From TrEMBL:
Probably deamidates glutamine residues to glutamate on methyl-accepting chemotaxis receptors (MCPs), playing an important role in chemotaxis. HAMAP family: CheD (MF_01440). Keywords: Chemotaxis, Hydrolase, Membrane, Transmembrane, Transmembrane helix. PANTHER family: CHEMORECEPTOR GLUTAMINE DEAMIDASE CHED-RELATED. One of its GO terms (molecular function) is protein-glutamine glutaminase activity. It comes from Methanocella arvoryzae (strain DSM 22066 / NBRC 105507 / MRE50). This is Probable chemoreceptor glutamine deamidase CheD. InterPro entries: CheD-like_sf (IPR038592), Chemorcpt_Glu_NH3ase_CheD (IPR005659), Cytotoxic_necrot_fac-like_cat (IPR011324). The chain crosses the membrane at residues 6-28. SUPFAM superfamilies: CNF1/YfiH-like putative cysteine hydrolases. Belongs to the CheD family. GO terms for biological process: chemotaxis. Its EC number is 3.5.1.44. CDD domains: CheD.
Length: 155
């Protein structure tokens, strides 16, 4: 959780058990360079000393872009796909609203960060109320999303 992985050519990057967290996959097809970030929280402004900063959208996504650039990727040619951001916690009204809907806040923060970096979002499988797993195949650029109930789709 809160980790970033980048790689080139063949390989599969996976995040297991996305609930309110968002998995952000960046892909640079020209060089088959990809990255996957497990974003847990939207904003690092309230972080404590010693915290893993990559778990925040505002730090993790620019960090992943920088790591991909070191492998030869150009942000102009990157695309993004987002998975997760479910409403996993019930609030006082019995739904995932307000401060209890961290998933929605995470998705919004990821979208805003990608927009600021001028990276196009090519696909999303976000929100709802079910956990999921994502597998990102760098050889093809495809992402397979599997919900906790076994339903699988390709993104």
């Amino acid at each position: 959780m809160g980790d970033i992985a980048v790689a080139r050519n063949a390989g599969i990057l996976t995040i297991i058990g996305l609930g309110s967290c968002v998995g952000v996959a960046l892909y640079y097809p020209k060089g088959r360079i990809g990255g996957l970030a497990h974003i847990m929280l939207p904003d690092s402004s309230r972080s404590r000393p010693g915290t893993v900063m990559e778990k925040y959208a505002d730090v993790g996504l620019p960090t992943m872009v920088d790591r991909m650039k070191k492998l030869g990727a150009d942000p102009i040619g990157m695309t993004a796909r987002l998975v997760g951001g479910a409403s996993m916690f019930k609030g006082p009204a019995g739904n995932g609203t307000g401060v209890f809907n961290i998933g929605e806040s995470n998705v919004a923060a990821c979208r805003n960060c990608l927009k600021a970096q001028k990276i196009r979002i090519a696909g999303e499988e976000v929100l709802g109320n079910k956990g999921r797993t994502m597998r990102f195949d760098l050889a093809t650029g495809k992402i397979v999303v599997r919900y906790v109930d076994g339903v699988t789709l390709e993104l």
